[in-house]
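A quick aside before the break. I want you to see a complete sequence-to-structure record at least once, exactly as it would be stored in a machine-readable document. Don't worry about memorizing anything.
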Amino acid sequence: MKRIAFYGKGGIGKSTTVSNLAAALARKGFSVFQFGCDPKADSTINHHGGKRMDTVLDVMRRGDDNDEAGFIYKSPLGVYCLEAGGPLPGTGCAGRGIISAFEKVDELKIYEKYKPDFVLYDVLGDVVCGGFAMPIRNGYADQLYIVTSGEMMSLYAADNIARAVKNVGKTGYAVLKGLILNKKNIEGEDELTRKAAEEMGTKVVFTIPRDKTVQAAEALGKTVVEAFPDSEMSRLYMKLAEMVAL
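That is the input. The structure line, written in tokens, reads:
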């Protein structure tokens, strides 16, 4: 089982990237779990018609948390979807909610039961909080990628995440593999991101161009890989899957 965490500034296209990667890996015949680690619980919506699913914390609040059937959804392409969820607005700590969801998945031995080839964690980019840093400091993830654009605030968030990885690097968890550039088509974006990656002590390992096919697929509540399997963008996500699978 290969466990990979994806971090990045909110709104950068991280969930879109992770969802299409999960779909591409599933198309290649791998068993894949996508675990959304954001209280908005919107990481996996494009795997099931644009609809949010019940989260681990939703099921725990109902007291019906001894059976994972309440919070696992299998997409048409075969991706197993989980959302950690969060506390009711104004009632608790979102980071603590992530920790509770991880503990429940461990308690039910989900990965031992399903034996996935890949677990992809889609994590909110605020790594200051211990809950959101959990995948990189508690041994849940083996590798980590940062999704960014060339925009200053996105690169600033990426630098913070890279620093967090270095801070916990002594434990041997979550090796930073590099940046995935999800382009916004700003001037000099490739060079800006390359230089920023060098300053972080890493590199840009994959570039995703801005393409209307992504928005067209999301309007259908689907990933590009499912909605437009023969498109150039779908082929690009399949290449990303090949890279990650190595």
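Two observations worth writing down. The two ends are 13 Å apart (CA to CA). The beta strands are 2-7, 32-37, 73-74, 79-83, 118-123, 143-148, 175-182, 204-208. We'll return to this after the break.
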